Amino acid sequence: MTTKDELSAAVEKARATYDEARSELFTAIQAALDGGVGPSELARRSKFTREYIAKIRDGKGPKGV
Fold this sequence. Notes:
Layout lengths: L3 H31 L4 H8 L3 H8 L8
Helix pairs in contact: 2-3
């Protein structure tokens, strides 16, 4: 039987995993941009829009990443 505490802890753990993966993704995108990879290619590979990639490039992307 799974308790509410166990279910809540599973959500908390999944969120931490998500936050770390998201941070790694944004770091990789910034490194790729710095290395000369264009926004269009990164948009295709990341499944983000070119406009969102540009926000990441310009430091206007998500907070805390």
